[in-house]
Amino acid sequence: MWQKLLRESSFFMVLLRYDRDLAAQARAGRCPHCGAAVHFARYLRKPRGAPTGVPPDYDLRDSFCCSREGCRKRLLPPSLRFFARRVYLGPVFVLVSAMVNGITEKRAMALRELVGVSRRTLERWRKWWRELFPRSEFWRAARGRFALAPAPSCLPASLVERFGEPGSGGCALAALKFLLPLSGGPRCPMEG
Ligand SMILES: [Zn+2]
To answer: Fewer CB within 10 Å, N or C, the chain?
Structure first.
C-alpha cells in the first residue's frame, strides 16, 4: 500500500523542505533547559531506507548545542525525516510499520527488498508501536483528539489511516506531522 510512496524521492524531498523550516525555528530559539543561546551543528546520520534520487546532504541532521558552559545540552529539532535516534528514516519506520500487520515470511522478504529492513527490525518496530507507543505520554495526551481512538492492536496502521487515503503523500505527511513531538525537540522521550 505504501510501497510506491516509499520509493518516491519527490516525497522525501518535501520532508526535507519542512525540516529546514523546523531547524530554522529551533536555531532562532533558546536552550529549553537554561535559556541560553544555542550553537548550530550538523551531523551525518547515515540513515537507512532512502529511495534513490535523494541528494547526499539528505542525510545531514540538524542539531543544536547549548552555548552555556555547564549546560551544553544537545537538542535535536523535530524532524519529518528522522525519528528520534532511529537508524531508518522516519517515514520508513512509520509507513513500513503500518504495512505490517502480521509479519509473514513472504511479507518480510518483500520489505527487505523494498527498503532493506530485516525481519528482526520489523519485530522490534512492531513491539514499539504495540507496547511502548500506547504507553507514551505523547499518545496518552494525543489520542483524545480522535472521537474514536485508533485500535491499539493495529497500530500504527489504525492511526495513519485517520489522516487521509492510505498510500497517498498527503496522508503520510499529515501522519508524520502528528508524530513530530516524538521525532525530536525538548520533550522527545527518546532524547539522550
Ligand atoms: Zn542550556
So the answer is: C
